[in-house]
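Worked problem 6 (solution included).
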Amino acid sequence: MIGRLSFALFVLAFCLTGYVLTWPVRRRIGWPRFFLQWFGESLGLDVRIEGEPIGRDVLYVANHVTWLDILALGGATPTFFISKDDVSAWPLVGMLARIGGTIFIDRESRRAARGQVDQLGQALLFHHPITLFPEGTTGDGVTLFPFRPALFASVAPPPPAIVVQPVAIDYGQAAAEIAWTGDDELGLNARHVLGRAGRLACVIRFLPPLAPSDDRKRIAAEAQASITAALGL
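Solution. The predicted structure is:
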């Protein structure tokens, strides 16, 4: 565990230093993706991609098992993530999320909902891939929580040329062991993951995109069905 933690801290320090020193061209260098990929590697994550990711004008819709999902998917693609707004206040993690272009939303405030839908729609129109975890939280690694139709408001109806692509994140039999459930503190879960023996295999399956629809419930149901089938749940 000490070796992994030391490597991870080195990757963090290297990337933050590089990000600061290359400020005129850092957007073209792609520091966030580089960091997520190598930070995941340092923690023992082995990522394999199946299927063809759509590189732009896409909303990735993925199941959510653990904080490692961010490292796996963010290291494999140049995606931005959608996150609960309280994450922005977390020490260090909030700063790294902002550097990585994370879009923070307040899922409890109806008043803020329309503005957040507009914010997400505008981000999609800039051609950058964005990832949504529509369960709204991490699961137990064995089942999926219902996908929340309200979170699909920005793509129902879809902006011009934007597609929704389901993504299945699969840790195999280790999923239940590493799952970050609502009862676990992040630090305790991270210690458990870091203390595992061997590497952790993660397969990211990019599934066929969904047909455009004006119906949020239909998009949510079809995305969940597609990911459920891909995971064999």
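Discussion: Residues 92 and 98 are 10 Å apart (CA to CA).
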